[in-house]
Protein 1
Amino acid sequence: MHPAAGHIETRVFCLSRSLLMNRLLRFLLSPKTVVSLMGAVAVASLIPSFVPQLAAKEPAFFSLWQAQSPWQYYLIDRLQLNRVYTSLWFVCLIILIACSLACSLYYQTKAALKSAGPSRKSGWAGVRGQALSCALPKATAALATNILQVMKKRGYSHNPEEDMDKAFVFRKNSLGRWGGVIFHLGLLCIILAGLYNAALQQRGLVVLSEGETFSGKGEEWLHTEQGLLAAPFALDFSARLGSFRPLYGSSGRLKAAESELVMVNKGGQSVTRSLAINRPVHFNGIKIFLSGKYGYAADFILNERGPNPVLARILLDAPAGRGETIFHELDFPTTDYHLAINFYPDLRQPSFLPSFPGADLSISENGAPPHYGRLPLGYTVQLSHGDTLTLRRVSYWSGLIFVNSHGLPLLSLGFGLIIIGAFLLYAVPCKVVSLRVSEEENDQRLFVNGSSKRYPALFFQELQEIANELEKVLTADAIQPVSHA
Amino acid sequence: MLSSQFLMPELIVHWLAAALYLLSGIFFVHGLSSEKPKSLPTACRLALFGLLFHTVSLVLQWYARGHGPYLRLDESLSALAWGAMGMFLLFNHKAIWQKSFGVILAPCAFLLMLVRIFATSEPGSPPATFTGIWFIMHVISIIPAMGAFLIALSAAILYLLKKRGQGGFRSRLPSLEVLDACVYKYAGFAFILWGFMIIAGAFWAEQSWGRYWGWDTIETWSFITWLLLGLLLHLQRFFNWQGERAAWAMMACFVVSILTLFLLPLVLGSIHADYLIL
């Protein structure tokens, strides 16, 4: 091989690599790519409205679906359409958007920095809006002062450094040119924080009755979610639910709920905190929320022929309104009894009994005719074969959500930047107006020209108004002689 | 109910405001269809009085029911009408040509307030999660967002009307370029405010359920609406989607926003469906 061949090969490789990079950059920056990516995210977000998602339905639903239409299910599962937001293609789409945003940001920042300098450098090639002109009186000393006054009144500021030959340059909302950069930076922050959080977040739901303790270990969770790179969720402290206090509105609907939570860390130190709906507590880096799901935990004891009584805790969802009954059916654990319960959180509502909870029961055993009876709290009913059933305790249960999230400051920053950026982009767009005086023979005219990145038609109207105002102010009568101080 | 004695005066003021909007709409139509120049300023004045009464009605309603105008469909629609008329009158004093938007906005506001007729149920109390500053920001920001949406929609409709012929009332409408710029401008405002609504909602969700985003039906569709608005703004800016195409696209975005707020929560189910009770 010729000694130069290796060198040429390397150069060809470098050249093709830079060509590839250029192509990739052009692709990421192309408006077509941006619009296509936005459309793709919109379509992807639509899918869960029509295809049931794994996170939203019970596993039994999908088993049935798979049994009924195996091919359809297979296709949807392979395309990951039943888990859109955690699918590989959705993550790739988001990463592609992040890359496009990052490239776009680089060029937008460069452009914004460039436009901040004197207009002489950036040139007026891209001036939009038509030039308007108005006749001027003979040059007077007051001309400049009057122009400045008019422009100042309309919110335009003058920077003499930007002035060109025989032209004054005025700017309004200079900060507006950073709108695009700030907005897209905010979007990038949100995407990065979202990806970071999606990878590392841990979240768990647990249901506790009053007085019950949660060890924080895996098997006690009712439901957990964790990011792709996160370890199984386990707390380094235990939590006990103290008294739970629901508060009802005038319509009988839950208005607020509050509870005490006692947390004990590994060293045995306990901390009691009060938490409420919309008022979470922080402990050992974990945020704990009252889920808003709550109800009654009814403890029944069945004394059978055997030596040990059977205890069953039934978790009943809170009724829609205060005073309403709750219906629940169950097979009593380890026995042949089947219970249908109409639970009354407050027996004052349907009966003359004192104000404590109770239940109307229908109990059947092995298909035998059922027994009916009312069982207030603390009372016992006789069943067949000498068995007895007691409603021993009624307490509240509540759902608690434990969250270990990441990247939240970045997410909040992104949110803030988006709002500021969008505001600068659309509410206060940067505008530049140039006023040029032309003298041709005896006719002196003022040309009003300008550029604005947004709303050219509305900006043209503004230019017209400026021209009219200047014409009015700069007529011979209106001009007051001023001295050059 | 905190102060139910305010409900009757509130109802009277509500209908007074609705009547003023209707009257203002008639004057707007008259001002555009005839060449009487005084009709449009009169229509604006009537709309302003309507807005004042409407504001009083909303304040009384808030006081009487103990919650803001977000719990029932008629309350939400009334608030949206207030947002649209408020934004219209706010921007109207600066740009005289915007008065023509009133021809669509005032009747729209009247129709939105008319829904109160069908409100039969007793106003309920808000769910426990409907508290906190972010919740208030979330529900309040939707009012000007829909206001901006409605103004952009008005500009789009007027653009299409003007495009289809000259003469008559069309000659009194702003130029096509101005109407097109208004579609873009108010779509931009709707984009900001809708974005703020989503963000405030995300903060509220974080406070209530420990997650900024849960892909709930309304959350997803709000995001889709916002994306569509962003798409429209990009198309207008980079692909020269102006004029008729932009007007139709704006109308499509408006339809999606209505679906998002009022129809999909009922069809697909959502935690947001609490404000759709009539």
Note: The two ends of chain A are 81 Å apart (CA to CA).
Protein 2
Amino acid sequence: MARQVTSRDADDTLQISIVRRILRKPVAGICLVYLVGVIGACCAAPVLAPDNPLAQNLSAVEQGPSWTHLLGTDELGRDVLSRLLYGGRPTLLGAAEAVVVAIVLGVVLGISSGYLGGWFDRIIGRALVDVGLSVPMIIILLTVLIVFDESMTAGMIAFGVLASMGVLRVVRSATLAAREELYVSAARVSGLSGARIVIRHIFPAVTGPIIVQATILGSTALVVQGGLSYLGLGAPPPAPTWGGMIEEAQQLIIGDSWLLVPAGLALGLSVVALGLLGDAIRDASQERWSVRGQPVVTRHLTRAHGPAVADPVPAPAPADGLLVVRNLTISMAAPDGDLPIVRDLSFQIAAGEVLGVIGESGCGKTLTVLSLLGLLPKGIYVSAGDAFLAGQPLSLAPPARGHLSNGIGMIFQEPVPSLDPVYTVGSQLSEVVRIKLRVSRSEARRQAVDLLRLVHLDEPEQVASSYPYQLSGGMAQRVSIARALAGDPILLMADEPTTALDVSVQAEILDLLSSLTDERGMGMLLVTHDWGVLADMCERALVLYAGELVETGTVASLWAHPRHPYTARLIKANPYFATPGAALTTISGVVPEPGNRPAGCAFADRCELASDDCRSHSIPLIASHTEGGFHRCLHSERIAPISK
Amino acid sequence: MIRLIAHRLLLSVPLLFVVTVLSFALEQIVPGDAAQDIAGPRATPAELEQIRIQLGLTRPFWSQYAHWLGNALHGNLGTSLFTGQPVTADLDSRLPVTLSLMAGVLIVCTVVGLALGTVSARHEGALGKAIDALSMAGLGLPAYWLSLVLIAIFAVGLRILPATGYTYFTSSPRLWALDLVLPVIALSLGAVTVMAKQTRDSMRTVLGQPFIRGLRAAGVPERSVIWKHALRNASIPLVTVLGLVAVATLSASVFVEAAFVLPGLGSLAVSAAQEHDLPVVEGIALYFTTATIIINLLVDITYGWLNPRIRVT
């Protein structure tokens, strides 16, 4: 029981906080005030109205607004303001009747059919709703008005019945969702009666959608009530209604269109106010689910790339190296100054070399790759550094696509989702071939099939006419590789190309990648978190941590004797070292967020060797004792070689 | 795909059944009956009885319904109580007007809605806010009022477009088009903003998917990424929206045709309702229901055409 009490309390506070959140939105507040004002004024019409709404004064017809008649007079000299106030009553009442009928019917049937399921749900929740939503509502209403001798009440009740189908559907799905929630199943198991479950647990869960539905319905009902009155059905003149007043204004439209304004605005604004209120309520109840405290950065950053690449006149390109990256810094624009995500990263790849990049998620591996393609997401930009491909400077600021990617082929992690689902493989490949080689359609198609053959796909013709969803992950990844090879790139970049694949397929894809780089003398940048892949594919590797290069060297030397504690811990977290039956070794703690990085060594907080020196200042790259290796650790001599 | 269409058609049978039975049943409970209307207020009870037997009104409900249905299947929906004309002849002559309106709305909605939505998906800020505000106004302002405001501004005030009336396409395509401009605008404003909003949401979802990055990385130019790949993917859910717009246009046409005095099905429904001419209203109910079924069918087919996953199964 105690558990239920708390969940109910939580519900109550939740409801209160939603109400507060709604009221805090100025739009919702204005709408609410307007609606309450309109309803109040119409209710108080006998007190507020300056005149009898039916009193004619043929000596003062069609007058504009004045002090005696604030909204002017109509064609029979009746006071428009008084007619507006009285006319709101049947209009609002009609809408209210419809809303009450629709909500009561929709909620009762919706909860029943969602909660009971079975044949009741099939007949009421599915078949009836399908039919109910397809009948021509307005024609049914006209028929009802004929049958019931133009009784507006009958018409609005009929509208409520028809509109309840929409409510039914929404309430039904909310009930289904609530029913599946843990606490309801628990309540059922604990032997609560069905009625109690519905009242105490399901009803509160569907209140939000019901309120939203009620506002939407209210605004539709106003339009319909006004429309029927406009058509001259329902309340007969001279009793005023808003719709009727619009119709009267139509008669005078040639001479003076002022009379369109009061009734039209009263109706239109009420409809809009209800709609906006519904939106506000929906937003407020959705905010409930969104994570709090997350900085919403993208909002105020439209296309803010900040300063593009630093120095506009780059230093002469280094002669050696297929890809040369120097002092690359990638930053995220934030409200209080820019946060560097990747800092001062430099590396080179020689022709024919495969360079590995390893690190945990959030270390900046993927951003580094994307920056070289000019594809950084909005709000993230290259704030310093430069890069050269075969001696030519790469433009790192978006939009830099096209001209640079001719030389670079890119392969992403998710094979199938990386392909457009609605075009065939052949059509997507030929589009890329045409862009890169500027050949005819048929020639592009032929080359696309050649590319598919090149990546060892059997029956390339058949693959070309397939859609991505018809391919296995391995086949789709081969297609991605084929696409990357279009236009004969000199550098391949692969971001965890095998992570999403089965183990046996992984080996095939890796074999394919290494034979392709060998045959074509391409360089390759391979991002991975798997030491096995690294050992198979790469001579050298970069170890990234929190956006910083912490160690680099040959894979063999890193593996045998790491000089940075992060490298050592990454190696030990490899399943290779796992003892059967024991828990896998993990690195405790998490990678610090860009805004939270310590002043000195970023790894200090997770490191056993860390001393005060490590935290006081940033650590430079230090040459390791192996050939070409560097690391950023003051205590590298205390790290033991890995024993297998 | 074929199964999907078959399923749809199968579902439409009970729908048509319910609509016809419902309207037929309503006719039965009308105070006063057709015999009274035909014979006039001075008819003797014996004359009335005679007419009732002639009309088959004394037979049981289901027998009358079966009779009516049999006639309906042969294209006979009875005669109008008011004009004495066959209902189908009346409806068929007015159908093109309503269909012209619907076609206009769908074209405006697709072209303008898609363009606005796509552009605003990529540029947040003023345009997006304007669409939000307009979509509320477009949805909120009743089409009949909007019609009158348009007439007041463009026909009465500026005198650049005709206020009311309709010219048949066959007699003058130019006047036909001019006559349709204001009604189509009145009917489209809400639909265009809904379409723009849905397009924007759908585009944002699609632009966040991995294949967009894949296309860009492969060097596909931004123009093709947005207007070819993203839009085609984003348009799949929009077909459903367009179907809803088409159905909503049918309903709204009742008011807008009345405002612009267009001789379509909608204005006929209004005058029939005012004259208590049930056979005509029933016939319109049948036409509208059939139109809804056809629209849903077209939505399904287009959906399958756009989405290869459905096409094959």
Note: Chain B touches chain A through 74 residues (CB under 8 Å).
